[in-house]
Amino acid sequence: MPPEEATAQQGPLSGLRVVEISSYVATPLCGLTLAQLGADVVRVEPLGGAADRTRWPLADSGTSLYWSGLNKGKRAVTVDMASEAERRRVVDLIVRGGPCAVVSNSDRYPEFGYESLSALRPDVIHALLQGRADGGAGVDYTVQAASGFPLITGPAGTDAPVNHVLPAWDIAAGLYLAVGLLAAERDRLVSGRGRSIRVALDDVALATAGNLGYLAEAQVTGHERVKSGNDVFGTYGRDFLTADGVRVMVVILTERHWTKLLAATGLTAVFEGLADTLGIDFSGESQRYEHRELISTLLARWFGGVPFTEAAAVLDRHRILWERYRSFAELGRDGGAELRKSDLFGVVDQPGVGPHLAPKSPVVVDGERPEPRPAPVVGEHNAELLPAAASTAPTVDGPGDGGGTGSLTATRRSG
Amino acid sequence: MPPEEATAQQGPLSGLRVVEISSYVATPLCGLTLAQLGADVVRVEPLGGAADRTRWPLADSGTSLYWSGLNKGKRAVTVDMASEAERRRVVDLIVRGGPCAVVSNSDRYPEFGYESLSALRPDVIHALLQGRADGGAGVDYTVQAASGFPLITGPAGTDAPVNHVLPAWDIAAGLYLAVGLLAAERDRLVSGRGRSIRVALDDVALATAGNLGYLAEAQVTGHERVKSGNDVFGTYGRDFLTADGVRVMVVILTERHWTKLLAATGLTAVFEGLADTLGIDFSGESQRYEHRELISTLLARWFGGVPFTEAAAVLDRHRILWERYRSFAELGRDGGAELRKSDLFGVVDQPGVGPHLAPKSPVVVDGERPEPRPAPVVGEHNAELLPAAASTAPTVDGPGDGGGTGSLTATRRSG
Asked: Which run of H or E residues covers position A328?
């Protein structure tokens, strides 16, 4: 890719450079999100590439599909992190030229910290991800355990915690970082000053539990949440199995939804009878939640008696809020035929992977979003961003603190 | 709260007004996040309050703890949505005065849409949440079903999908909306123009599955993901039970972690023997993942043989990445003693709930974050924001399209 193409990005963040000194999920997602909105995002890696370059799942070539997904459309440089002179090149990248923000998940090197950088460039924005707000280590999976959610996830009547496979706290933390960074960028445009932004995974988890009412409930009511399978809390929602074994999720939020579901399933008279006999008013959300087992028993009979295509036609005709469970295998099958139906996906020809469908930004700006771009190979942009890069030649510095990983020979596969 | 206090907000978004015409989780979280960073967020509700005002969990008084959590620090006005004149007051709130952004989860009223608003105010920013990008209805629980994740969540060997209790797509979508809105706000400061931002829940789910490599894996490899309980994919991580029945999560990402865990559990010699005998190199992440059952069997024996306090001391001494599973009940117990340890929480005295610990923003700006503020009661800020508000008097308009909910008498519990 010629430099012109790499830097000529469109979008509301065009003109903003983001230097990403990061790994894993949260900080790379922050950078990806900003890149998709037009920022020029440069990922800095140690020699040979960052540790997460080999993270599963892998293509047959050994290229990480995970890394490729989270680093689309960025530029990538490698430096010998053990060398002070090399780290100074990264500092130069940040403090010279147009407006710049830094995204990092480490405070290992003081020169990449807010204090050092703001002394050289008072308008720098610095966004730091922490595992724990108290400075301790934490990753999505450990933060999950402490968050409360795994103990109320999974089938009713079971004890063992069920972790989310989705690293939801990484995702949320990466997006909170982007929000903080852009809030600081607004302030920079108004006042000219930079800001330090900090987001910790454990704060994100506990703030979310608080925002959704879980922690207030635990403090002010005697009620203790327990596992309730796929039942939606406080309203009516559950999964059902059709006669031919297809699993669907159905959600009833309003009285209109409820009336339509009864009409769709032919249960209107049955529930009128139950309402009369048992004195239950099914028209309210909380009443439906309280009597969800009764409702589910009758609905499960209906779903169990019809094949999926018939159930789907009836639910759609009555505009019920429902969805069929899909597997990743199904979503990827036949060259991603299912994904092609959506404007979200575009073809990326990723080195080491080949052409495949990859997502654009879920943020649509003025009705448009740019096509997805490949992730960079190791050191791909060293030549254009670090013109006299010492990283391509042996350094005269000592071995330092061992921060460098990989070998010199692996430094520049492309450039 | 006097008007001065309500509007004198600090933070990098101070001076930006956000008018929120929204409900449920994603759009209110967007507004909450912006309010916590200093924006003046005004939530617009129909007469009597929005439908989500009664969502569970509830305090004994009937006040929604969920609503209170997601609407902290906003101002709230009610208008008769069925009245065109009343809706015009909301339009006035948006188009008059300083810079303004709109957050909405509905395209029901054309005058609140981007086209109408930008005709009156070209620099308006409009952020719309959709259920499905194709315009169809969707909520977190239905989008989850189609996302692929529930079919690979839960114990290995089971078939039924396990939904996340956490509405992760709502959370991510709300934060993506905030990112899009602030990217547009940057562009407005640079170019003076407004933007239309759109985020759909199903796009957020599929984009995330794509960004994390799940969809590329399904397209380009023959590998099909299956449920694997609490095992972390592609590296080593799992939950264990101590001798006294305490559940902990342990994660090993690096060779250093691995060496330390063996030292902590006294298994160094055992694994050296296994490495020699079986020819397995346990030093690599992918090798540890492939042989995770062998590792887990031996670790489970160790954990099962020590009480929790002893295990905790050993793990901490060796700086292992681990965490104990906590319940919401534990987090709320004793007036939130566990939460008080963190700077994240502050006391809010919420009408209908009383004083309790509520989270501040997980985004720390220059080392600080403001104390949490209560959520507004229904129509609390009508008098200051809609001075000659017709909503407090019977309207001369016809019944309109029935968009208004609730009764006139319930309009202003506080002013």
From this structure: helix A328-340
B321·A139 Cβ contact <8 A: yes
Q: Residue A331 in contact with residue B148, Cβ under 8 Å?
A: yes
Positive/negative CA dihedral, A230, A232, A238, A239 = negative
The C-alpha atoms of residue A328 and residue A363 are separated, in whole angstroms, by 22
Residues 6+ apart with CB under 8 A from A309: none
Contact A343 B235 (CB under 8 A): no
Alpha carbon separation from A300 to A270, A353, A358, B385 (Å, rounded)? 14, 44, 37, 49
Identify which of B161, B189, B233 has the shortest CB distance to residue A189. Answer: B189
Which is nearest to B171 in space by CA: B320, B64, B28?
Answer: B28
Distance in angstroms (rounded) separating the CA atoms of residues A69 and B162: 25
Q: What gap in Å lies between CA A210 and CA B72, rounded to an integer?
A: 11
The H helix count followed by the E strand count for chain A is 16, 12
Q: What is the pLDDT of residue A387?
A: 78
> In this complex, do A197 and B139 lie within 8 Å of one another by their Cβ atoms?
no
CB contact under 8 A, B207 and A359: yes
In chain B, what are the helix, strand and coil shares in percent, each to the nearest 5?
Answer: 40, 15, 40
Sheet holding B236-241, edge to edge: B236-241, B247-252, B321-324
Q: How does strand A75-79 pair with strand A40-46? A: parallel
B54 in Cβ contact with B88 (< 8 Å):
no
- Domain residues of chain B, as ranges? 3-210+343-385
**Residue tagged active-site, from A80, A140, A170, A202:** A170
Instruction: Tell me, yes or no, if B170 is annotated catalytic.
Output: yes
Do the Cβ atoms of B329 and A152 come closer than 8 Å? no
- What count of other Cβ atoms lies within 10 Å of the Cβ of residue A400? 15
For residues A110-117, average pLDDT:
98
Q: What percent of chain B has pLDDT over 70?
A: 91
Smallest Cα distance from A393 to chain B, Å: 28
Residues in a beta bridge with B128:
B104, B198
A57 preceded by cis ω (within 30°)? yes
pLDDT digits (tens, 9 = 90+) for B191-245: 999 999 999 999 999 999 999 999 999 999 988 999 999 999 999 999 999 999 9
- Cβ contact, residue pair B216, A354, below 8 Å: no
Which residue among the candidates B40, B80, B123, B170 is catalytic per the annotation? B170
CATH of the structural domain B3-210+343-385, one choice from 3.30.470.20, 3.30.460.10, 3.40.50.1110, 3.40.50.10540:
3.40.50.10540
For residue A222, the model assigns a pLDDT of 81
Taking CA atoms, B58 is separated from A14, A282, B46, B244, in Å, by: 45, 19, 21, 35
Task: Please give the Cα distance from A390 to A290 (Å, whole number).
Answer: 68
- CA–CA dist A365, B180 (Å, integer): 8
Residue B297: which of B213, B231, B214 has the closest Cα?
A: B231
Compare all CA atoms of chain A with the CA of B350 and give the residue at the minimum distance.
A216
Taking the C-alpha atoms of residue A98 and residue A117, their distance in angstroms, rounded to an integer, is: 14
Q: Which residue has 């008279």 as its token pair?
A: A269
Residue whose pair of structure tokens reads 């997805």 in the numeric block: A372
pLDDT band at A9 (very low <50, low <70, confident <90, very high): low
Least CB-CB distance to B218: which of A225, A331, A343? A331
Return the number of other C-beta atoms located less than 10 Å from residue A334's C-beta. Answer: 10
Q: Is ipTM beyond 0.95?
A: no
- Helix, strand and coil content of chain A, in percent to the nearest 5, comes to 40, 15, 40
β-strand pairing of B17-21 with B236-241: unpaired
Residues of chain B contacting A326 with CB distance shorter than 8 Å: 145-148, 151
Give B106-119 pLDDT, tens digit per residue: 999 999 999 999 99
